[in-house]
Design brief:
Layout: H1 5-20, E1 32-34, E2 43-45, H2 47-55, H3 59-70, E3 80-86, E4 90-95, H4 97-105, E5 118-122, H5 134-152, E6 156-160, H6 169-180, H7 183-188, H8 190-205, H9 209-223, H10 227-251, H11 265-277, E7 281-284, E8 287-290, E9 300-303, H12 311-326, E10 330-336, H13 340-352, E11 359-364, E12 367-369, H14 375-378, H15 384-402, H16 408-428, E13 436-438, H17 440-443, H18 451-468, H19 485-494, H20 497-506, H21 511-530, H22 538-561
Parallel strand pairs: 5-6, 5-10, 10-11, 12-13
Antiparallel strand pairs: 1-2, 2-4, 3-4, 7-8, 8-9
Helix pairs in contact: 1-3, 2-3, 6-8, 6-9, 9-10, 11-12, 12-13, 15-16, 18-22, 19-21, 19-22, 20-21, 21-22
Bound molecules: arginine (ARG).
Length: 570
């Protein structure tokens, strides 16, 4: 990845600060940020203030001293045009307009994601033999977006769908399957039938203890490799995946590997052995448990008294395997926040075992529905396929209303991209830590911070560029009278795209990217309404078309990082 502009300016400041305080930069590495208001300048640092504190000097005076050392006699190094002291000791920097334009040309630059350090992302990861529901949406969408973002930044990203395909439920399912299967229903809709069988088992087993025992026997057989049980289990896995793939294809989400918990089964005994030998796990009421010094962490069960392993054991085995296979720079787990304690335990145990690596849990809140908005009509569980159908249907109505002249096929295509985009954006644009309430009117609105709004701005730019015959590819020269206020604001925002992507990645918060895209689009709309573009002349026309083209590029690239398509017309 290219160096961020803020880092470049920080690098210019470091030697300057060293000359002022030869002991080194006393206040630590200088921090440069974009200003909130472009009228103050493009970038800003508080370095003089932190230094002044460390040196016991006056911050305003120190700021003046830094400015003089950085740009003796007002001649500043590229890409800076000027710097001035402000307020209690800030330094505001301005870029030369031409340098800003050139930086803009390189603001969108994608890594190819083949050579960088490895990041493994564990997302979606549904439990098989059940249909995917709304709860899986967030992990799938958020994980996919993080994958795109890190890949963009040049990491080699491995997306793994860590299926819940192992555990006690399969003993139950096999038992129920043998007793009660409705073959017709299974042929018709296998997952629905498996769900029915599972629910029936839970109900019946309450009445007869024998059933549970039977299920335990079947589970043991499955785990010991009994061919018949293995074959049944494999069938459940395959049928589930077939079903999930339909949804993934629709969402435009893909994985590099799809290993379930079962993949790690053979490692689990080794992990338990290591835990015991290192004295970390001990017997407690017949089970094996890891106790922690930290009171905030509950003891973690790793093996039950009947020998069965648990969710934590499987995640430890999985973590060990991933470390061995990929030596990743980090492993990111995307699940809802109810799993926070689980991952705290697993990560702590891995650290106690001395395993290297950097596991990170990225938790999110639940998605709820507005009362009467969806759930009542479609039953209690909201299946993903139905949600997506509904989104497309509603988007179609809107498109049909807004643009009746479009052909039928195009209307459908637009409705698909808008409907899916709206659902994804609604999820990704919110602070992931909060619970979110799904509200169709907000999701599909064309004038808030929504995907349809951004897609619409993009389509408007595409249409403008078509009319212009596309406009200049390379940065033109800045018109002699210099950029106008509204143009400066737009440029200032465009320069911040790499920063927004970087910050979104660092905090695992794609909403920093969506917020950015929304601000950019608003600045663009202002610019678009305030200035003639196609009717402008000569250099000015080229300059404005260039701003349009680059804004379009940023919106397209940014939406793509969120897994959202753009349309050339809508
Ligand atoms: N299958 C789990 C669930 O549906 C999520 C798995 C997340 N990944 C992991 N390595 N534990 O809740």
């Amino acid at each position: 990845m290219k160096k961020l502009l803020t880092t470049r300016i920080e690098d210019l400041l470091i030697p300057v600060l060293k000359t002022i305080s030869p002991g080194g930069a006393e206040g630590g590495r200088p921090q440069v940020q974009f200003t909130r208001d472009h009228r103050l300048g493009d970038l800003q640092t508080n370095a003089a203030m932190t230094q002044a504190k460390a040196l016991g000097k006056n911050p305003r005076e120190l700021a003046a001293q830094i400015i003089e050392a950085l740009g003796p006699g007002g001649r500043f190094p590229a890409p800076l045009e000027s710097a001035e002291a402000a307020g209690p000791g800030f330094i505001n920097f301005r870029l030369t307009p031409q340098a800003a334009l050139e930086l803009l040309a390189g603001a969108v630059e994608e890594g190819d994601g083949r050579e960088g350090p490895v990041i493994l992302i564990d997302y979606s990861s549904p439990n098989i033999a059940k249909r995917m529901h709304i709860g899986h949406l967030r992990s799938t969408i958020l994980g996919d977006s993080l994958k795109r973002i890190f890949r963009y930044l040049g990491f080699r990203v491995i997306g793994d769908n860590h299926l819940g395909d192992w555990g006690t439920q399969f003993g139950k399912l096999i038992t129920a399957y043998r007793l009660w299967l409705d073959e017709g229903a299974y042929r018709e809709n296998p997952i629905e039938e498996l769900e029915r069988l599972y629910v029936k088992f839970e109900k019946e087993s309450g009445k007869s203890e024998g059933l549970l025992e039977e299920a335990r026997r079947e589970l043991k057989k499955l785990q010991d490799g009994d061919p018949e049980n293995r074959a049944l289990w494999k069938q459940y896995v395959d049928l589930s995946l077939e079903e999930y793939d339909k949804i993934y294809r629709r969402l435009g989400v893909s994985f590099d590997t799809c290993r379930g918990e079962s993949y790690y089964h053979d490692r689990m005994s080794g992990v338990v052995k290591e835990l015991t030998e290192k004295g970390l796990a001990r017997q407690s009421e017949g089970a094996l448990v890891v106790f922690f010094d930290d009171e905030k962490l509950h003891p973690c069960l790793v093996q039950k008294n009947d020998g069965a392993y648990l969710y934590a054991t499987s995640d430890l085995a999985c973590l060990q395997s991933r470390e061995e296979e990929y030596a990743p720079e980090r492993i990111i787990y995307v699940t809802d926040d109810r799993q926070i304690p689980h991952f705290q335990q697993v990560f702590r145990i891995a650290a106690l075992l001395g395993w290297k690596g950097r596991p990170v849990h990225v938790p999110f809140g639940v998605m709820k529905f507005m009362e009467g908005h969806f759930s009542s009509r479609l039953g209690n569980v909201i299946y993903l396929s139905r949600l997506l159908d509904e989104a497309e249907k509603r988007a179609y109505q809107i498109v049909d209303e807004k643009n009746p002249a479009l052909g039928e096929d195009e209307k459908k295509e637009v409705a698909r991209a808008v409907g899916l985009g709206a659902v994804k954006y609604f999820d990704l644009s919110q602070n992931r830590s909060s619970d979110i309430i799904f509200d169709w009117d907000k999701v599909l609105s064309f004038d808030g911070n929504t995907a349809p709004y951004l897609q619409y701005v993009y389509a408007r730019i595409a249409s403008l560029l078509r009319k212009a015959g596309d406009g200049p590819e390379n940065p033109p020269t800045v018109p002699p009278e210099g950029p106008e206020e509204g143009e400066k604001k737009l440029i200032h925002l465009m320069l911040q795209f790499p920063q927004a992507v970087f910050q979104g990645a660092e905090s695992y918060r794609p909403n920093l990217i969506s917020d950015y895209l929304f601000d950019l689009s608003q600045a663009f709309n202002y610019f678009y309404n305030a200035f003639p573009i196609l009717k402008a002349l000569g250099e000015q026309r080229d300059f404005r078309l260039f701003l349009c083209r680059q804004t379009g590029r940023i919106i397209k690239t940014g939406l793509n990082l969120l897994g959202i398509e753009t349309l050339e017309r809508m």
